[in-house]
Each structure stands twice: as C-alpha cells, then as structure tokens.
Write a structure and sequence with these properties.
- By secondary structure, the protein is an alpha/beta fold.
- It is 22% helix and 32% strand.
Length: 308
Amino acid sequence: MDYDVIVIGAGIGGAAAAYYLGEAGCRVLVLEKERLPRYKPCGGAVPGSVFHYFPFPLDEAIEARVARVRYSYRGQEEVTVPLPNEAVAMVMRDKFDALVLEQAKCEVREATSVTEIVEGEDSVVVSTKSGREFRGRYLVGADGANSITARELGLRRGKFLGAAIEAEVPLAPTAIGDWAQTALFELGALRGGYLWIFPKREHLSVGVGAFRKRKAKLRDILRQEITKFGISPDGVTLHGHPLPIYIRSEKLNTARSLLVGDAAGLMDPLSGEGIRYAVKSARLAVEAIVRGELDKYTTWVQMRSAPT
C-alpha cells in the first residue's frame, strides 16, 4: 500500500486532516491541483475558537482582529455590535492554509489534478491528469464545493450551490484606519444574501454572496453597493466562487472515503462561514479513520462530535 490516507485538496480542511493524520502516525499524501501557496477566494473571517484546534501558533496569518460588527440595511439604517476579545480574526487563506499544512507530517504533490477515483474492497486508487496513480487505504475529499471526490464516489448528487463574488481592495493607510477592527454586513441589496466588507492589514476584502436558487447580477450589485461606503470599484479584480449550501442531512462517506468542509457542504446557511466546519469535520474524519469507524462519520458530523 502506498499510503494510509490520501487527502485531495490542500485548503484548510485538507491541511487540517493531513496534520491530524500525521500526528496519529499515518502515512499521508496530499494532492493539490494548484501551485502552492495559492490564492483562495474567501472573506477570511476565522472564529477565535479555530485557533485553539491547533497546538502551534497561527498569529503570522492574522491580518486583523475584529472588535465590532456593523450591520447595515441598504447602506442606510445601521446598528453596531461589539464582539468579545479575539472572537474573530481575519486571515488571507493562502498564508493561513499554508501554515497549517507546513506543520503536517505528510507528502504534498501540488499542481496535481485528480481525474478518477476507484474505491475497492481494501483500498482507494486515485488517478491524476499526468497519468500517475496513487493507492491508499482511505481517502479524504477536501476538494471544495465542486468536489471531484463527491462526484466520483456518487455522494451529494442533489447538492445545491450558491455563488459569491469577492475582491481585495487596496486602501491608503489613513483609509484603512477607518475600518480597523470593524467588519460590516449589508443586508437588503439582494434577497437571500448579503454584502460583506472585512478589514485586512493593508486592504479590505469585499464581496457579495447569494444563498438562494435565483439568478442575481452579483458583479453589478457589488460594484454599486461598495460605493455607498466610500470604496471605489475602479480597477478592482473580481473573483467568483461557489458556495455549498447546506439544505439537508446527507451521506458524507463511503466504506473507505469521507468528505470534509465545502466538499461535504458544511457551510453555515445563514452567515456563509465555513472555515470552522472544515476544521471540525477534518478532526471527525481523522477520528473515524483512526478508529476504523467510517460508517459512523456522517452521524458524527450531524451530531457535531464523535462519541467519547
């Protein structure tokens, strides 16, 4: 057997799974289709509890901490809510994910696209675009909302994806100060979604997400709405990405494979937050593998914890 576990995807869910598997003494291979570190479209809001899941510092990845949240209705009516100390931190995902992966005892193959997954009685064989094949006892699919792992294994066939458009907007130091420690959510610009503005060290992350089954001109909405807050859309590069909407309980594992994070559709259907669920599901996936109880993984995810 080449590996104990093959992890597909080096985002935070895959990086976390690789780290915990390595600590459990498993031989781990991580396959990532992009070159690392890679830009990851994401607002980058991380609940403070996530940092306690790892026994090593991640402060290097923190761009800003959030002390207050502004909720705005169409850029007019507003309410500001203070947050407890260090409740939320803002990160850039390329650095955050890479820091976790660097701590993992694993082999990483970047720029490696998976084309086929065949699960047998005692192993899982993963074929790649280059023609290479890799064999593992188990597989963790952490390859995002459009997961090839889920597709190849016949999981999440009835999934629904929302959509988001986001951008990183550079600002002068004086302008950044106006947004220090402040995150904003604007409601009312579109039904079933919201606009966000998050502070980073030298720029703002802005975006708009739609969580319902209807078409919306997200690019136009984003450009129009950010001007209400004194942010110019001129010259801003927009990035689109799918949002995995959790709409029902569904099977997230086979006999030898498990889905984590966005691949499993684990995103908060109200806030759109997914980093916490990616890490928590990775921990549960590793627990299932170490115990040899993959058949219980889906139930554990729905319960949010494994039985002691």
